Each structure stands twice: as C-alpha cells, then as structure tokens.
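agent> step 3/5: call structure_predict on target 'Thioredoxin domain-containing protein' (Gordonia effusa NBRC 100432).
agent> reason: downstream docking stage needs a structural representation; sequence fetched in step 2, passing through unchanged.
tool.input:
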Amino acid sequence: MVTLALLGVISGLITGVSPCVLPMIPIVFVTGGTSENQKTSSRPNWLRPVLIIIGIVISFGTIALLGTLVLSLLGLPTGLLRWLGIALLALVGVSLIVPKVAHALEKPFAKLPSWTPGHSDGVLGPLLLGLGLGTLYVPCAGPVLAAISVAGATAEIGWQTVVLTISFALGAAIPLAFFALAGASMTSRLGAYRRRQRAFRLGGGVILVAMAVAIAANLPATLQRLVPSYTSGVERVIARQDAVTDALRPAGASGPRIDLCAKNSGNIADCGAAPEFSGGGRWFNTSGQPLTKAGLRGKVVLVDFWTYSCINCQRDAPYVKKWYDAYRSAGLVVIGVHTPEFAFEHDAGNVGRAIADEGIAYPVVQDNNFAVWNAYRNLYWPAKYLIDGAGNIRATAFGEGNYANTEGNIRTLLRQANPSVTLPKAVTGGVDTVSSAPTTPEIYLGAARGATSYQGSGDLTTGSGKMFTLNAVQPVDTFSVGGRFDVAGESITSVSDAHVRVNTRAAKVFTVLSGTGTLRIHSAGIADKTIDVSGTPRLYTLIDAASAQRVLDISYTPGISVYTFTFG
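tool.output (status=ok):
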C-alpha cells in the first residue's frame, strides 16, 4: 500500500509540473490571495489557499474516479462538470470586480459563519471554491489518471484504486499549493496591496474572467501544445509499475495467482484454476449451447479475448484459426470471448456477421457485460489464456507477436494432457508480420477518450453541430478536426464540410466507421483514395504503403461516424 501511494503521489506530482498545469497557475495564485480584511483576520493567511487546494483535491479525485460513471447513470452530458466549473470561475471573477455581486452571493449563506467567500475568515467559501476549480483540473491526465478514469467508468473500484486516486490527487495538487500560498503570502506582506486592495481585487477579477473565457474557448490548449511534453516518458514508466497495474486490474474471480501468468507472459506456470464462462451472453458456433469447465475437462483450451473492429485482433486472428485447424483433433479447444469496445459491438447481429466474415469456426461467447473479462482480470485486446487438461491456467499472451512461443506452449500442454498424442508440424509463420518500428498508438476520436490525442482548435466535448478548424501544422501522433461534427462519447459524426487531419507513424492505417457516405483520403506522395461507407459498423483500410511517416487529410460526406484510427 505504501509503495502504491508513493507511486501515486509521484505520478500526480509529475502531472502537476507538466504543461497541463499552466492554465491553473494564475487561477490559484489569484484566488489564493484575493481576500478581504486580511489585516483584521483572526485566521492565519495560509488557511484560505490551503482550503482551496483541499477542495481541488477532493473534487479532482472524486470526478476522476466517479465522474464518468455518475454522469452516465444520470444521462447527463460528459462536459457538464467542466462548464459548471467555468461558470463558477467567471462568477468569482465578477464578484471581485463588482462588490455588489459578492454581497448578493453571500446573502443566502449569511447565517453560516463559516461562509463569507470573500473574507479570509471564511472556511466553507474557499473550500467550495476549490471544489469548483477541481472540475477544471480534471483534463490534466497522464496514463495513471486515464486508467483510474477507466476503472471508475466500469465500476471496477477497489481499495487499491481509491488509494492510487487519492495519492495521485495529492501529488498533483502540490505544485498548485505552492502558487496559492505564494499569492496569499504576497498579498499579506506587500504594503502596496493593503493600500490598493480594491485595485488588486479588480485586477484579479479581470484575470479570472479572462481565464474562464480562455478555458471555454480551449485557448490554453494552444499554449500547452507549444510547451514540450517533458514528463510523458516518466509517466509511462510509472504507469507500468506492478503496484499500479495491480491496483487497476479488475478484481476477478481468479485472484492473484492469474497475475503471475500475466506478469510472466509467455512462460508456462501454475496460475490457478480457470474461472467458469458464466455471466457471458450469446454463444456462436455451438448451436447456442454454452460451454462449461466440466465439459472441457481433459482438453487444452485457448481462451482468446477479442473484439471485431480491433485491428490488432484482426491481425492476430489468422494465427488462432491456424492453431484451431491444426490441433483440434489433438485435443485443442479454442473459445473466443468477444468483449466489446464500442457500443455497436454489443449487437449480436454485428458480431455474428463479423464471425462469418472472418471465417471463425471455433466457439465464441458474447461478453457484453465484461463478466468473463473481469473473471480473468484481463486488461487487453487481444489476449490469450492457455488452460490445461485439469482446468488450470498455465500461460498467457498479450497483444500481437511471439506466436511461435504461444504455439510451443499449446504443444507442450497437449503432450501433458495426452503423452501418446501425435502432433502435426508447427504451423506458425507466414501468416502476417508484426512491425517492430515505432508506431502511432491507437487514436480515439470521441469525447470520452479523444483528448489524449486531440490537438486542434475547438473543444472536443459532446455536442451537436460543433464547428472546428484544422491545424495548419499537425504534431506527430495527433489529430485535429475541421468543419462541423456531432460529437458523442465514442465517436464524431460528420455534418458539413467535415475533415480530419492525422499525423501518423505507420505504413498501414485503419479506421472504424459507421453510417453511410463517402470519404476521401489525401496524403503527399500517394494517389488520392475514395472509400464508400455503408452496412455494419466495421474497420476500413485507409492506407497500405511502404513508407511510414505521413499526414493524412480525410474528408467525409455527412452522416459518417468515426470512432478510431489504428496503425500497423
């Protein structure tokens, strides 16, 4: 627990000194120092900024862990908390400029002695102000915070996740506390402030209103893009630490022993009994009958987690199909677990068509509620779990690659289950290749996860008919949007004059689309390409070329929903 908390604090501290903190610096500096009656206050001058920071920590941590889940349950837009924070910031600014507004705000709370937000004696006021400001600090997210948000959104919240969230929030608030205390110290010591307190409060109010307008227009993102992301590498290292991974792994039935296989992926080990396939939905290729552990006794089972629009899963599938064809007569059973990433992948008809299109003959269970996923404490697409004849998990494989090793493990377990079995020659090889060159990570375009790769003008939050402008120069591994789009949590849908610009490091570029229409792709050095979009939402190939580095300009006719870009 101590290690986990320490890693959380360090990760939060690194986020707190990253470019994402820049818009918050003038806000906490001003709010921490602009209070009335400091000279006659009975409380120490550091109390107000400390209360504001405590409010930010509570709000920031709570929203990071529960914000997406609560808003989803209430059917509220994902950007609601951010806009409430902006409104509060503007209101505080106006109250500093116009004293009558401040007095009007205080009237409903006049009987509460701990209120008085404009006075240094107040307790509740600064705390509530911090709670509001915390809604504006949530977008400052690195890998650890992103994983915390996913855990909250799927309601997979254990004590380790809570410890990591609290420690992360505390670490992220430390740099802000420095600036808030500096503001309070300056205003308490400067005689000029005491003589011209009204002018300083007026200036502070102007700064807060200006920052509210700037944040609403997403102007701080421009400044953040100009400052190098000097902390991203360190954040990724911390996110890969065992203590952090353990905290964010789903608390499934298989318990900690399955994590031994996960941490030593590729090696044969004893990782405990495999969970049942209970809780899943419809079964395919079994005449609708579910498979059970008891019915699979004596068989070697390969459990393959996949989702049909995932390009990594599509590249992985030929190996799984070859193994099934080669070894099923020797006792191998393959079970595909289709755990959806997008809403349209919940549809059984879409899944059935994908199974037919891929030529998958082995059993597949639809895992829409993540029951099997959580039982295996899984984190990845694709992911493979090998179960021996006694029903124990013995090996894992995550992502693409290392296929010869996985096939070797299959052969080992088949011989252990039946020493007299005759196995065919190994079949791995010649199906596909896995590039070892640096490749752009998967890019999501919806409001829920698009912010990690979005670098453009306009606020990528949910809304209808939103107008955007393309970047003239697009940084590598990012995208921008131009024209008018409807923005949802998982996707953006073209409305008019719709364009996306993405700078990639990949010879192959794919995209997940739904709707009906046409898109046109332009990239220097290759011929323009037109693709018709219709039918079942699925993965489309945009580029398949020799060179890797390129900027793609893609135009869309109205009615096309764009979910993600993937690369190879």
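agent> step 4/5: record observation. Residues 1-31+46-112+124-226 form one domain.
agent> proceeding.
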